[in-house]
Every structure is written in structure tokens, then in C-alpha cells.
Amino acid sequence: MTPRFRIDASAQLVPEDRHVPSPLAGRSGTYALMATAPDLLVFSRTPAEGGSIPLPRVVLAGDAGGFPLSDLIAFLSQSRWSGVVRVHSPGGERSVTLREGEVRGASSDDPADRLGEVLVRMGYVERAQVEAALREQPPSKVGRSLVEKGLLKSHDLFKCITHQVSEIFHAIVLCREGTFFLIDQPVEDKSGHIIQLSTQSLLMDSIRKIDEMAHFRKRIPHGRLYVTRKRASDGKLEEDEDRVLGLLDGRRTILELGHAARLSEFDVTRVVFRLLEGGFASVTDKPLMVPGPGVPTPIPQPSERTAQAPARAPARPVVTVDPRPVARVFNFIFREIRDEVAKQGMDREFIAAANAALSGQGLSSSPVLEGLAFAPDGSLPENKLIESFERHRAQLGSEPLATFRQALSDMMFFLLFQAGELLESRADEDLARRVKELLSTLEVS
Questions:
Q1: Which of 237, 250, 282, 374 is most buried, by CB atoms within 10 Å?
Q2: Helix (H, G, I), strand (E, B) or coil at 221
Q3: How many CA atoms lie within 13 A of 308 on its CB side?
Q4: Left, alpha or beta for 339 (phi > 0: left; psi -120 to 50: alpha)?
């Protein structure tokens, strides 16, 4: 349990629970209180005596509005840092896990970030189906429950989990209020629901949202403003705009509207901005005393706090331009995964799901994989794979072999994601270890 303190009316620091061991034990001395953001207290011992504490530990903390968090995350990516970046803001608490500079998972306490909400927003399932699954299973298993009921395909679940983690990452990058913390702690390296996304790609994708949010902030400086309805819908608004307009009563802030409408802070800010532009709403820094008519009450949703998913490997340069060694290593990995699943008697269903993902191009847009299918032993036909690489080489950019490897990595980690749902924890971790060893044969020293 994390020790908590409060500052009383006489400006004294008082522990909320005196039975919880205090982190202040053994830290006697004189401390200076540094000037920081309202959400952060920083004490510095004078004179410094040094020392360290066991992991996990906070190694950096600061004001999220002091500089763009994208700059910090870019530095961590380039430094191949491992640990957790946690942000506390008025919109909620979010964190992203990095391993060797790449995104390996994310969590959020914002209701709009729940996996069930993502599945509904992306149109893969109906809300009633998610609510029914949540009545039968804990939130952490809602996705797998929908797959088992035949309501969702496994590769679509993988896509939604990846999107969920990306959205949490973008919300962290867009944050301009609150505090951030870098937590040095070991990051587990196993399959299952852990993903790996390219941090640089996510940062590039965030640039558009950063620019858009800067435009919105000209009229909406922050999310704590209250929104009042000025006129009814004209029937031409988009679905999200109509839903938010119906919630406007002058007593909810923009952040509270986002929670009620199940939208992220970015999305609800964009919707409110459009309503302001259309003359449907106005904003103020104080709430109305009288509620507006016909305001629906949002239905509280069960918590789905954490989100993690199987990994996308960073594309690294290889020594040769010959694609055959890459294809052979990945085929060996594919067979290794299939053989492990076969021990559970699920190899036919496993290969069928993999081929459905391939045929639907749900995991990779690379033309190299078009028209290919996994054989019963789990491998891709090598000759056809190489022929496809040569045929599409000109479309693969300045580093075609790295792009080729990335496409195979996308499939590999989807297979690991699938296998993680079928295998016991020990077998799953052992498989991940063997796959890592095989991938290391493609690394450049």
C-alpha cells in the first residue's frame, strides 16, 4: 500500500494511515521545499547525503506542463530505457510501459480507455454484448470472452488492444497539466497480453493530434470548463456531437462530459470545439445553478483499468539484403509456436485463425503477405514469400528488408498473442524465451 499524506489547515504534513510504514523513515535531516506545480511537492535534503533504495523507485518527476512529454518519451526511446512513465492529470491517471525504448503496454483509469469502450467505438461489438460479457467475466477477460462466444475474431481483438494502447499513449503525449513520473522497475518479457509498438511511430502519429489540440486550445484552454447548450440539434450533427449535445446541462466540465459520453479527452475536446463553432454550445469557468432539461444519466461501467497486448518487434538493420535468412528464421519461429499449441490439441483452430488474419489483412498492410497462407505445420511457403518480396521490393521503402521483417514480426506477435490464450503460464514464458533466442540470430552486434 502506498503511504498517503495530507496537508492540514496549519500547513502540516500528516500521514493518513499511521499503521502504514512511512517512506520518511531513515531520512532525517533538513529538507528544502522546491517551487513546483500545484499537484507536486518536491523536497531536497540539504546537504545531500546520497544513497539509494530498491526497485521500483521514482527516478524523475516533474510538471507535465513544463515541456512537451513527447520530447521526454523520444529521449527515453533513443536511450532504450526500460520502466514506466506515469502521468497524473485532471483527466485521470495513465501509464505506459517501455522496454528498451519500445512501448510494451499501457494502463488508464479513464472509463473511455477501457477495452470494452474501444471495441464498441471501433464497431466490432454492440454495447449490450460487452455488458453481458462483463456480467460473466472480470474486465481483464472481456475480450477473450467475446472471442469464445463467436462475437469477435481474435485478430480483431488484437487490433483493438493495439489501438487501445496507442490511444492511451496519445493521451499521455497530449497532457499539458498535472505531474509525470519515471519509475525504474523491471519489465516482464513474456507473451500473452503484452504488446510492443514502435515508440517513434507512435510519436509521429501524435504530431497530428498535438497540432489539432493546439488549435482547439485557442477556444478551450483546458478541460475544466463547463459547457452549456445554446440550441438544440439541427439533425445534421454527427453521432458523437448529438450525444454530447444531449448531455450539456451547464454543470459538467469537458472532462466529465468525456466520461459520460465515453470519449477520450482529445475526442470530447474536438466535439465540444465543433459545437462551439456551430453555435450549439458555449463554455464558462463556472457551473450553472439550474440543470438543463432532458439530461440523461450516464450508466456506470465496470472498471477495466489495465490493458496490455503481444508485441511488435522493432525493425533493426540486418547485415545482408538477402531475405531468405529472415524468412527461414521466422518460419522456424512460426513452427515453434504452432508445435507448442499442438500439444494442447488446438493447432487446427490456431492455423485457421492465423490464416483468417492474413486473408483479411487485419494485422499488416504489407503487400508481401498478400495471397499467402500458413501451412498445417505453421510455416509460410518460403518460395512464394521470397517471390512476393522481390515482386514488391520497390514498394517497401528505402529499407525493404527491414520492412519485410516488420511484416513478419506483426504476424509473429499475433501468433504469440493467440498462443498466450491457450498455453499455461510456464509454457507461454518458455515459448517467449525460445522465440527471443531465435530472433537474436537476426540481430546485428
A1: 374
A2: coil
A3: 18
A4: alpha
The CA-atom distances, in angstroms, between 329 and each of 146, 310, 334, 372 are 33, 19, 9, 17
Pick the range with the lowest mean pLDDT from 13-27, 264-278, 319-333. Answer: 13-27
240 close to 271: Cβ distance less than 8 angstroms: yes
Domains and CATH numbers, the chain: 26-214 (no CATH), 222-284 (1.10.10.10), 324-440 (no CATH)
Instruction: Give 86's DSSP letter.
Output: E
Q: Find all residues with CB under 8 Å of 429, minimum gap 6, and list them.
A: 190, 191
Distance of CA 372 to the CA centre of its chain: 30
Measured CA to CA, the distance from residue 246 to residue 263 in angstroms comes to: 14
| pTM for this model (two decimals) | 0.69
Q: Please provide residue 262's backbone torsions phi and psi, each rounded to the nearest 5 degrees.
A: 60, 45
Cis peptide before 139 (omega within 30 of 0): no
Taking the C-alpha atoms of residue 101 and residue 114, their distance in angstroms, rounded to an integer, is 25
In angstroms, the CA 312 to CA 161 distance is 12
pLDDT recorded at residue 443: 67
Closest alpha carbon to 113 in 360, 366, 305, 328: 305
DSSP letter string over 12-48?
-EEES-TTSPPTTTT--SEEEEEP--TT--EEEEES-
Average pLDDT for residues 283-298, to the nearest whole number?
A: 66
Which residue would you say has higher pLDDT here, 238 or 398? 238
Contact 114, 139 (CB under 8 A): yes
Q: What DSSP letter does each residue of 164-181 carry, written as one string?
A: HHHHHHHHHHH--SSEEE
Tens digit of pLDDT for each residue in 354-411? Answer: 888 888 766 667 888 888 999 999 999 999 999 999 998 888 877 888 888 888 888 8
Q: Which is it for the CA torsion 62, 68, 70, 72, positive or negative?
A: negative
Max avg pLDDT among 97-106, 283-292, 312-321, 410-419: 97-106
Q: What angle do CA 7, 259, 204 make, to 5 degrees?
A: 95
